[in-house]
Fold these 4 entries.
Entry 1:
Amino acid sequence: MNKLCQQYLSDVRAIFPIMGKPERKYLAKLANTVEDYCMEEKAATIEEIYSGFGTPSELASTYFTSVDSSKLIKRIRYTKWIKRGFFVLLFIALVCVSIFGITTYKAYKVFEQEQFYYGKTEIY
């Protein structure tokens, strides 16, 4: 696959708000079709691919019109909450690690101050 086809497919992928199984299947079929088109037509510019398939926004809009919008909205909301939950867990882990590090450092300093030093004393 040449660079123009890859650029076109990456532009189309960038339009999709979520990348679920149906979107991956659609993009896999599109990738095969675009690759065949690029090999047959020897597309030299991205505009030739746009004239053959349409702009990435047009492709995405035709895909979204063919998909049930209520299911798509539910999936977008679900992924949004998953991302928020991940960031909350990450923040909690960061706070816990920070607290553990601070308490360990304080315990180390106390141990360092209370450490009994042995010295060599000679009695004559």
Entry 2:
Amino acid sequence: MAPAAARTINDFLTDTGTVAEDYDLILTGDLGYTGTELLHELLDIEYNKNIQSVHNDCGLMIFDLKKQDVNSGGSGCGCSASVLCSHIIKRMRSGELKRVLFVATGALMSPTSTKQGQPIPGIAHAVLLEK
């Protein structure tokens, strides 16, 4: 998922002529610790972009990696929905956050592809939330 998120974030920032600091938060779905590190590395190496000052990940926000055995994360759609619809919307309503780039991440799971030995493609789509 990290490569898809990196490309989506790069394309969005490039297409809109913006930089990471134009956003209060750039939020990814559930890359977890490993995916987040990979995202930052890919953005730096492949796209010469750094979002670390404004980036957070829903999976990292929900789980305590030291106390819970979640390895690199949980359910992308579950983490995204839980964090966005509660914590982030609440912060936007209060005025704490005014501009959030939400980049949902996921996998296109297909039993047919898997049985044929094909890779599972990662996807990411961006939604700009503004107050």
Entry 3:
Amino acid sequence: MAEYKTDLLIIGSGPAGYTAGIYAARAGINSLIVAGAQKGGQLTLSHEVENYPGFVEPLSGYDLMDRMQQQSSRQGVKVIDDEITEVDFFDHPFVCSSAGGNSFLSRAIIIATGASVRWLGLPSEQKYIGHGVSSCATCDGFFYKNKEVAVIGGGNSALEEALYLTNFVDKVYLIHRRHSFNAEHVLQKRLHENRKIIVIWNSVVDEVVGKEHPLEVTGVRVRNVKTDTIRHFDVSGIFVAIGHHPNTELFRHYLKMDSSGYLATKEDGCSTEIEGVYAAGDVCNPYRQAIIAAGCGAKAALEAIKFL
């Protein structure tokens, strides 16, 4: 347990958090990053990043975030492996407490806590999380070598997961509740050219099916939303990729949010209604793109620097 005093506290260590730290440090601001539950953020789960400017060859999300951390550390930013669990924005300097029992006092704060996986909400899904139900093909895909799996969703994440899984599995059922994808054209093209992927249109998951001893997934029940027809698919794994929700619950009593839980910031800026508190990245925009989060982090840092 320790007490830290800093000019700028950055909560979160994704592209927004690290970029904010780099900009603040280069301006001579004493800054500190509390990494959060998932160091590097959601991007660390991406198998391949090929649209981040400056990298001709694709690299993994983990490698990209590792480089950002190294760059921020080189600039003198201290990164602490801990998670903020309580904040007090009523007094100044602001006070935050962590899961590790540490206390943080700061003159300004940048919230860059990112977003988390959105699950289906089925009891059977929750039962088998970690036993055949996953949200990360990069993490768990190898375990399904030569097997059949299902991916749930129709956006970029779902198509990326399905395409990645074809490196290991024999077949991927891509289950989507509509009859068209909300994904980049290049991903749709790759998917349609891949014979290992079978798209199940206009369908939702009714139940995850599995065994008790040992606890493991054996199949999935799927309902057609137009005909109510039920189909069963024998699969060994299910990957949920239906989106994310912003990690903003911690700030609900202090900051304004929209109906989806994203933090509200002033027009064309990153400042919240509390002077000295800023938001950057996926907590305040739904784009979920590393380059946008990084740019937002830089912007938040410049505003915080001006405030300080």
Entry 4:
Amino acid sequence: MTEKTNVMRLLEQKKVSYTPHFYGGTEAISGVEVAKILGQDPDRVFKTLGTTAKSGEHYVFMVPVERELDLKKAAKAVHEKSIEMLKSKELLPLTGYIHGGCSPIGMKKQFKTVIDKSAENFDTIFFSAGKIGCQVETTLKGLQKLVRVESGDISV
């Protein structure tokens, strides 16, 4: 087993059971490739996306790796006129994470987070453990013990 990430430590602090999954590699690969390497259904593997609203607020959205965030639906879910994806250079200073290793758990600041409603269909879901090469698998309820996550119709 590789070293624990802060995401894993935070899950343990809150006594949330999880399974770590390591896939090696030092560069970001697509979430679809990650799902394939882990032998998992891509509908259960979620990517974490940072956004900025026209109001200046920041939001986090989680969608299955094979799907895309629908910006109109996402804006509606957080009651904003419009949102756009964060630029890569803004991700690290804002969240503490790099592209390909962004987790909803352990960000520098807690942003309103919305996960695609399809997550409710699975006993467990996968998402980044905060480092490229590592995912955690836990329940949606487990994730909600650490992050206020709402579910919504946000993907296409």
